[in-house]
Amino acid sequence: MAVGDVTMPQMHVVQGVKIGSAEAYVRYQNRRDLVIFEFSPGTNVAGVFTQNAFCAAPVHISKAHLKLGNPRYLVINTGNANAGTGKIGMANAEATCEKLAELAGVSKAEILPFSTGVIGEQLPMPRLLSGLQPALDSLSNDAWVDAATGIMTTDTTPKGASEQFELDGVTYTMTGISKGAGMIRPNMATMLGFVATDAPIARELVQQMLSTAVNQSFNRITIDGDTSTNDSCIFAATGQAGGAEITSTEDPRFAQVAEVLTRVMKRLAQLIVRDGEGATKFITVAVEGGANTQECCDIAYSIAHSPLVKTALFASDPNWGRILAAIGYAGVKDLDVEKIQVWLDDVQICKDGGAAEDYTEEAGARVMAQTEITIRVALGRGDAKDTVYTCDLSYDYVKINADYRS
In principle, which of 59, 78, 338, 344 could form an S-S bond with 55, CB 3.0–4.6 Å? Predict the structure, then answer.
């Protein structure tokens, strides 16, 4: 079960975006597993992708196609990652683009493919290709929830976020979906994320907005420390709601749209953590007082990745020495431990590098028993700060991943 509020909100329609889905039986029976996005002509599209050297065939092709211009269609399959599949996998991803291009009447370069699921297995191409026309036939402007369901793997719930906002008297929409529950330590984005707005934004600014928002959202989460081969995040601006195009970062509307995008992406990213495989707790690791942002992130991730910290969180065991150990091995140079303060929510457990005088085991256990916990660390080195979101490590995480291919 996911932790906390994971309710799917009202998913507002984005003008210029249509979505269709189908049951292609890529791996799963009697559920959507193939999703297509259609963007109106003139939509500006940006993407960020995994830095894993073993990146999947669709990642290679999507990156190449994005360099050639703006895509009109996205095609996503779940159940099979098409990663570690060599030349055959590349040919299969190309064939998917070619078939969809033929059916939709566009060029192959206007198709971006995405896959998620088991690594190292070839796509069942006859079934996948046969699902393209039914997905196209079902295109609708209000199918965001179906799409969120259709890209799930071990997720227990679909993930979506949507906001409407006003610029110069025009109402715009920002809506997105994501998927992911395991193999989550993005090094660019999330497992899969797709966000669109009908605000008019120049293409180079779309990429800038996306890269900035990703670093404040999807690049600040971890479940198990594993960076996927298929991480991909797409941001599309259709411009179909009207208004003058945003062409400069000096335009006050740029900051307003960027703020909404970051907020939507943070919600999508945190939903992934809340639905982490086997998760029972949602953990915020906030590090402040750093000399720079990087060392704050290094320490936050060191805590968030520690199996000993994560299992203690699962057990509601206030074994706070594990947190200190994780801070110490994070690799921050010249760290003065006598300046470090650590809190579990409002309970200070470490003061000036040692146990806080008024700390009690009962107070620590009270916080650790909560389903949502903040670990706050003050380094006493400067003014930088940053935050990472993670979850605990439970028995079920092992069970889910031990049985993943069953």
Answer: 59
Distance of CA 280 to the CA centre of its chain: 19
Angle at the Cα of 385 from the Cα atoms of 381 and 388, rounded to 5 degrees: 130
Residue 237 belongs to what H/E stretch? strand 232-237
**Phi, psi of 337, rounded to the nearest 5 degrees:** -70, -20
Percent of all residues in the chain with a pLDDT value above 90, rounded to a whole number: 91
| 389 within 8 A of 282, measured Cβ to Cβ | yes
- Which tokens is 84 given? 């570690």
Burial label, 172 (beta-carbon count in 10 A; 0-12, 13-18, 19+): buried
The per-residue pLDDT for 108 is: 98
Q: Are strands 192-197 and 232-237 parallel, antiparallel or unpaired?
A: parallel
| 3 state SS for 169-192 | CEEEEEEEEEECCCCCCCCCCCCE
pLDDT for res 406: 58
Q: Which residue segments constitute the domains of the chain, with CATH numbers given?
A: 17-274 (3.60.70.12), 282-402 (3.10.20.340)
User: How many other C-beta atoms are found inside a 10 Å radius of the C-beta of residue 323?
Assistant: 24
Residue of 187, 176, 151 whose CA lies nearest to 49: 187
- 360 is written with which tokens? 């009690």
CA 129 to chain centre: 27
Return the beta strands (E) in 87-169 as ranges: 111-118, 159-167
Q: How many CA atoms lie within 13 A of 291 on its CB side?
A: 9
Determine the Cα–Cα distance for residues 310 and 322; give it in Å rounded to an integer. Answer: 9
Contact criterion met (CB below 8 Å) for 213 and 254: no
| Beta strand extents in 267-393 (DSSP E only) | 282-290, 341-344, 347-351, 354-355, 372-378, 384-391
In contact, 257 and 201? CB cutoff 8 Å: yes
Q: How far apart are CA 24 and CA 406, in angstroms?
A: 19
Q: Which of 163, 233, 224, 200 is nearest to 392 (CA)?
A: 224
pTM: 0.95
Catalytic residues: 190
CA dist list (Å): 37 to 12, 20, 274, 293, 334:
15, 7, 26, 36, 50
Task: Tell me the Ramachandran region of residue 106: left when phi exceeds 0, alpha when psi lies from -120 to 50, beta otherwise.
Answer: beta
**E strands, 28-135, in order:** 34-39, 44-49, 73-80, 111-118
Closest CA to 268 of 113, 116, 163, 171: 163
What single-letter amino acid sits at 81?
A
Helix/strand/coil for 165: strand
